[in-house]
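Lab notebook, entry 415. We have the chain sequence and a SMILES string for zinc ion, and the next step in the workflow is to get a structural model of the bound complex before anyone spends time on docking refinements. Request logged below.

Task: model protein plus zinc ion, output structure tokens.
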Amino acid sequence: MKPSMLAMGLAYGMLTTVAHAAPHQEVHDAVGQQQQPLLQTLETLVNIDSGTGFVAGLNKVETLLTERLEALGAEVETHPAEAYGGNTLVGRLQGNGNSHIMLMIHYDTVFGEGTAEERPFHIEENRAYGPGVGDAKGGVAVILHSLEALETLGFDDYGQLTVVFNPDEEKGSLGSRDLIQQLSAEQDAVLVFEPTFSEGDSDAVTVVTKGINYAFLEVNGRSSHAGGAPDEGRNAVMELSHQLLQLKDLGDPDKETTLNWTIVEGGSKRNIIPEQARAEGDMRYFDSSEYERVLNEARDIIENQLIDDTDVEFRLEKGRPPLPSNPQTEALAEQAQQIYRELDRELQAVEIGGGTDAAYAYHADSSTPAVLESLGLAGGRYHSDEEFVLVDSVVPRLYLTTRMIMELSDTEAGD
Ligand SMILES: [Zn+2]
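Result returned:
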């Protein structure tokens, strides 16, 4: 955190006394009381299908979440997520302090209508199963029940808590990303509740996520009879092949940028010199400047053609941006690790190759907000029939979020 924030925090010492005086045991007791209610909430949420774009199911979840937020004292707004349907919910709780903290996660899943009926929520030993149980309905439940715990503790030293539940993350958040960018700009900290992977006794938060871009290579040649007049044709498939070989090293190992060509199409009939050919590629990166570099390099490279009179075009479309390595996120991760140590538990700070909405909350041109990802439940096999969360991750994860909010209320001041 910025030194100025710390100074402000000290200036408001009167307000933060409660947080310091509260024994951590009290927090642990309060979140312990939330374990069963959280599992009940999770069961209710998981048993409502809410695949991205399944508006009837999304609306049911939305109604339920609105009621829960209002019961916690939040004022709730809905914003239509245009691309796939459903609404983004924004709930705001006013406190007596200064810090602005946002808690964010999606409530859509990757599972189609009928999945919840086929394999509803169930618990076997330490594992809870069901569609979206970890990704990310577990995260929704952690947010709601951390707020319950704060209410039990009588804690309201934050300035404003903003809860954001969006309905379209699994398809890229096209209908909620602008809102996320706009709301996050007003925050000191943004906590994102995607699930984390469990490994033995330790689990993790995410400090870096890769961005994704989509590469397109298109070649236009000229068709001609392959038997009668092959020389009059301009073979787009041959030109594409030449270009793909030239464009195979657009990645940068030092920067961990990758660009892999994954789809190729071309030609139509065996006796026709193909007029058109195209390829698509998947680019992953941490460093935002890699977009320009790859685009410029590729456009230089394609100038070198194998076959005259073919048109070659390279395009790069922007997908989800990265959450790059940054000091604000590192500071939040350290804070989280310290809190986990209070429980005698290890917390890793990891990088992941996939993108999440944390990237939309991050503002490269500003030191705020600090963004931390993966505060949801610990589990695994996400997006599969065996998706699960660990029941014994519920209490540590509730403790982590509740204490994070208390600590952030302590040390940060809003504008
Ligand atoms: Zn997710």
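Notes for the group: Residues 394-411 form the longest helix (18 residues). Worth checking against the assay data. The first strand starts at residue 75 and ends at 80.
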